[in-house]
Amino acid sequence: MLYDMTVPAYVNGLNALSAQLDKARAWGADNGVGEQQLLAARLAPDMFPLAAQIRFACMQAVQPATRLGAAGAPGFAEDGADFAALQAQIADALAWLGGIDRSSVEGEADRPVSFDLPNGMVFDMTALTYVRDWAQPQFYFHLVAAYAILRHMGAPLGKADYVGYMMAYLRPGTAPTG
Questions:
Q1: How many angstroms separate the CA atoms of 4 and 8, rounded?
Q2: Which end of the chain has fewer CB atoms within 10 angstroms, the N or the C?
Q3: What Gene3D superfamilies does this protein map onto (predicted)?
Q4: In a domain, 145, yes or no
Q5: What's the CA gap between 63 and 50, in Å, rounded?
Q6: pLDDT tens across 6-32, in order?
Q7: What pLDDT, on the 0 to 100 scale, is given for residue 177?
């Protein structure tokens, strides 16, 4: 259950983010918006820029599995300096997630999970509440922030770019035409 709630969702989200970056880079090249301008863009002065949102999304995709028992996660110490570096971060996270042994993440949903933040706050939760109340919201926050920054800058992204993986579940003959 814990594996199914985390790893596949993070893989879907990171693949969508990678495709969004490709689309935004191509749009930027066609419209005079450079990579550095996109990397530095942010939604508000006190929010992190796009490059940090990508790094945080990657971190938030691997941290849950490590806190639940997986080992060997890649580190994401610095923001990517260009789109190739952002894509490399995503690729590293995806490769690691793809190699996780399901049994290392699974386990009792009520087992304790503790973690601390750099500001000294410490949280004690169960594995299930950790995934539901911390891991998922943190991942999606940074995923949405990156998407919103790209949209804010003018990249032609839509909801289908955010949840494109849902097309695998589309019932044949039900897609809108035209």
A1: 6
A2: C
A3: dinb family like domain
A4: yes
A5: 20
A6: 999 999 999 999 999 999 999 999 999
A7: 85
Q: Look at residues 145, 175, 157, 116 and name the one whose alpha carbon lies nearest to residue 48.
A: 145
Residue at 177 is within a domain:
no
Q: Give per-residue pLDDT as tens, 109-118.
A: 999 999 999 9
- Is residue 17 situated within a structural domain? yes
Whether 156 is in a domain gets the answer: yes
> Cα-flanking dihedrals φ and ψ of residue 113, to 5°?
-135, 125
CATH of the domain at 105: 1.20.120.450
Report whether pLDDT(95) > 90. yes
Pairwise CA distance, residues 19 & 14, whole Å: 9
- For residue 178, pLDDT over 90 is answered with no
CB 57 within 8 A of CB 51: no
Contact by Cβ (8 Å): 74, 62: yes
Query: What's the number of domains the chain is made of?
Result: 1
**pLDDT grade for 140, boundaries at 50, 70 and 90:** very high
Q: Classify 154 as helix, strand or coil.
A: coil
Judged by DSSP in three states, 123 sits in strand
Nearest CA among 106, 109, 105 for reference residue 127: 109
